[in-house]
């Protein structure tokens, strides 16, 4: 039960998928449930009222955000979505797509005045296409090589931050131990970096995934480059 003025977090993780005729369309996402539960516990320790939901259909996902639009919120709203996806959408466990812009608009000031001034922070662990990122070698005079990423722009409501596991058009990796992206988020939230301003914290996650993570097995050596979009007007410290 949330306390008055307590920040809220909604974590949605889909691991098993089927279609309306019962066919299996997408593969099982092994490792996703465990890391979602880990992140939920961390957010709870950071004084968020956390709602963790497993295997939600497209309509159920939209309904969860409709419910959040009616709740009393504290300083921040955080949401983590872990599912299959493609550019601009995530999939419900019924293999039906949910447009991310639809989710964002549910919480926009026009439809949810209570969240107008509250920063809304989304972490999206899902593929955005089928391309594999082979990585690049960057030569520099000194220090660590810095990755670069240009994210496609799309409409997000005011006071919103969206961080994606990968760049537009690319796959996001997951194995039985979890995903590169959400494991990097977990590492940051458990360390001293959690006290940083949000834009600096997200940049740390970029660096952790881009410079220290790469795929194994079938996709040996492939890389991943997270990126984020923000229209916040001030520095915020949601995890400090």
Would you mind describing this structure in some detail?
With 240 residues, this protein is of the alpha/beta class. The chain has a single domain (8-132, 156-231), classed as 3-Layer(aba) Sandwich (Rossmann fold), CATH 3.40.50. Helix content is 24%, strand content 19%. It has five helices and eleven strands; from the N terminus they run E-H-E-H-E-E-E-E-H-E-E-E-E-H-H-E. It has helices at 32-45, 58-68, 100-106, 180-190, 198-212; strands at 8-13, 49-54, 77-82, 85-86, 89-91, 97-99, 120-125, 160-164, 174-175, 178-179, 227-230. The strands form three sheets. It has a six-stranded mixed β-sheet with strand order 2-1-3-7-8-11, with helices on both faces. Strands 4-5-6 form a three-stranded antiparallel β-sheet. Helix 1 (32-45) runs parallel beside helix 4 and helix 4 (180-190) packs across helix 5.
What are the SSEs and their pairings?
Elements: E1 8-13, H1 32-45, E2 49-54, H2 58-68, E3 77-82, E4 85-86, E5 89-91, E6 97-99, H3 100-106, E7 120-125, E8 160-164, E9 174-175, E10 178-179, H4 180-190, H5 198-212, E11 227-230
Parallel strand pairs: 1-2, 1-3, 3-7, 7-8
Antiparallel strand pairs: 4-5, 5-6, 8-11, 9-10
Helix pairs in contact: 1-4, 4-5
């Amino acid at each position: 039960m949330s306390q008055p003025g307590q920040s809220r977090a909604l974590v949605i993780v889909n691991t098993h998928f089927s279609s309306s005729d019962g066919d299996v369309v997408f593969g099982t996402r092994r490792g996703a449930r465990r890391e979602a539960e880990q992140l939920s516990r961390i957010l709870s320790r950071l004084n968020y009222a956390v709602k963790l939901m497993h295997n939600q259909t497209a309509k159920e996902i939209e309904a969860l955000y409709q419910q959040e639009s009616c709740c009393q919120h504290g300083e921040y709203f955080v949401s983590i979505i872990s599912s299959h996806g493609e550019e601009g959408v995530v999939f419900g466990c019924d293999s039906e797509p949910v447009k991310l812009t639809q989710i964002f608009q549910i919480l926009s000031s026009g439809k949810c005045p209570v969240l107008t001034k509250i920063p809304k922070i989304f972490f999206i662990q899902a593929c955005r296409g089928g391309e594999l990122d082979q990585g690049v070698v960057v030569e520099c005079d000194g220090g660590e090589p810095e990755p670069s990423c240009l994210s496609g722009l799309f409409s997000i409501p005011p006071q919103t931050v969206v961080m994606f596991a990968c760049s537009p058009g690319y796959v996001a990796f997951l194995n039985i131990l979890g995903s590169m992206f959400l494991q990097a988020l977990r590492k940051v939230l458990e360390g001293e970096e959690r006290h940083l301003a949000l834009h600096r914290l997200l940049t740390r996650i970029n660096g952790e995934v881009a410079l220290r993570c790469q795929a194994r097995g079938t996709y040996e050596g492939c890389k991943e480059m997270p990126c984020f979009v923000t229209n916040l007007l001030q520095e915020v410290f949601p995890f400090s």
